[in-house]
């Protein structure tokens, strides 16, 4: 519809292609067994216009003409801002649509940084609601830095977008040069939907989660406390203070590399010792010559990978507390949700983060249901709704596709979640 919201989707990593979201989460079609496509009954294009945006440059089929790419969160945010503004310049019919930023995992850094640029950088953009799923968040530049977002051409980087425009149902790959000049319209950026947050709490709660769920034994847990917390309890210590400590880092790797354990969903049964077979199947499909030809991928562009790891990218470990407080003060609403079987980003991370924010509690944790089906718990704070889905992992639509669809449909349409 002409009034449907415009959603920009980001995958995480950093280095994971947003086309993965298109192929497995919220696109109009789903890739099955790495061989064929079938219609997705829970496609977000049923209630919104969606742009799947690759970030940073060099992820997926995106590339730079001068063989460079953003090497940190700030430069990635710059390119993402330029890409969004350029899209609105090329497709002005969307300039008055409500705009949401959505994504998963490390997109929980990309999106808050981008939204803060929009929120603080232009009086024309009014951010009303945030829908944050589950992953990492960090602080971005201070308001004084964000007031003037650099609009100059930052080089010959090519920004890669995959977009499906509702109505025309048009799927195409578009390559954009960074624009020389951008026009401002009256834009309405109204929400975010992401993955879990707070990287420092992320590492700590992953350790606690693995211990309380019987994944590691008492001896291993004691070694974690000894190597990462010294004389402090794990609740008191800041894991990231000593993240450069090789012994502490190795303890995390021991957990992450446990065979036949899906750390993204500990309830999922792996067919064999390799729990990520889907990645291999997707890579093979996307690199087929006929697929690359249909997508009009230029000759010489590297092979597509689900998650790229062979590039340098500085993550940074700052928190997003002040951004959530700022959003709440300005009556910007947030939706945060987790799966209770996710060891990578445990739901306790969200609970600790919300407790740290000190926002007013409006509704104690209570049973949450969609269409009379109980799916988890819901807690309401001042301008923040917090959901924990039972028997769900890091990728909610793999176990709760209808719920994943419905909470976003409601939120994007300003209905009660």
Distance between the termini: 22 Å
Strand tally is 13
Shape: globular
**Fourth-tier CATH superfamily name of the largest domain:** Alpha/Beta hydrolase fold, catalytic domain
Kindly state the mean pLDDT as a whole number? 76
- Given this structure, which CATH class of the largest domain is correct? Alpha Beta
Radius of gyration: 21 Å
What is the N-to-C succession of helices and strands? EHEEEHEHEHEEEHHHHHHEHEEEH
How is the biggest beta sheet arranged? 6 strands, mixed
The CATH topology of the largest domain corresponds to Rossmann fold
Helix content: 25-40%
What CATH architecture of the largest domain would you give? 3-Layer(aba) Sandwich
Put simply, the count of helices is 12
Strand order of the largest sheet: 8-7-4-1-5-9
Portion in beta strands: 15-25%
Supply the number of structural domains: 2
Pfam families: Peptidase_S10
GO molecular function, one term: serine-type carboxypeptidase activity
GO biological process, one term: proteolysis
InterPro entries: AB_hydrolase_fold, Peptidase_S10
């Amino acid at each position: 519809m002409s009034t449907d919201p415009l959603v920009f989707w980001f995958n995480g990593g950093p280095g994971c292609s947003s086309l993965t979201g298109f192929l497995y989460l919220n696109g109009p079609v789903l890739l099955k067994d790495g061989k064929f496509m079938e219609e997705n009954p829970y496609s977000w294009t049923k209630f919104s216009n969606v742009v799947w945006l690759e970030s940073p440059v060099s992820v997926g089929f995106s590339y730079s003409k001068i063989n460079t790419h953003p090497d940190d969160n700030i430069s990635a945010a710059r390119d993402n801002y330029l890409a969004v503004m350029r899209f609105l310049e090329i497709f002005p019919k969307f300039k008055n649509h409500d705009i949401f930023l959505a994504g998963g995992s490390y997109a929980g850094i990309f999106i808050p940084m981008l939204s803060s640029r929009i929120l603080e950088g232009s009086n024309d953009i009014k951010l009303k609601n945030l829908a944050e799923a589950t992953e990492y968040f960090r602080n971005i530049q201070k308001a004084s830095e964000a007031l003037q977002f650099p609009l100059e051409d930052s080089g010959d980087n090519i920004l890669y977008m995959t977009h499906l425009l509702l109505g025309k149902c048009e799927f195409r790959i578009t390559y954009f040069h960074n624009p020389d000049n951008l026009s401002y319209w009256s834009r309405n950026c109204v929400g975010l939907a992401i993955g879990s947050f707070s990287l420092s709490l992320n590492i700590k709660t992953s350790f606690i989660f693995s211990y309380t769920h019987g994944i590691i034994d008492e001896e291993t847990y004691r070694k974690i406390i000894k190597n990462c917390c010294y004389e402090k309890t794990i609740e008191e210590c800041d894991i990231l203070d000593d993240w450069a400590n090789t012994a502490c880092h190795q303890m995390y790797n021991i957990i992450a590399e446990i065979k036949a354990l899906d750390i993204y969903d500990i309830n999922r049964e792996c067919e064999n010792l390799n729990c990520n077979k889907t990645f291999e199947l997707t890579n093979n499909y996307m690199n087929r010559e006929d697929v690359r030809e249909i997508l009009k991928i230029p000759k010489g562009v590297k092979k597509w990978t689900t998650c790229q790891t062979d590039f340098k990218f500085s993550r940074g470990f700052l928190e997003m507390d002040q951004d959530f407080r700022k959003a709440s003060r300005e009556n910007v609403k947030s939706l945060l949700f987790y799966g209770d079987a996710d060891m990578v980003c445990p739901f306790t991370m969200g609970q600790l983060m919300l407790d740290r924010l000190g926002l007013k509690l409006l509704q104690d944790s209570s049973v949450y249901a969609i269409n009379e089906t109980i799916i988890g718990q819901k807690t309401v704070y001042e301008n923040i709704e917090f959901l924990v889905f039972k028997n769900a992992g890091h990728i909610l639509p793999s176990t709760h596709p209808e719920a994943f669809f419905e909470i976003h449909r409601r939120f994007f349409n300003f209905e009660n979640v």
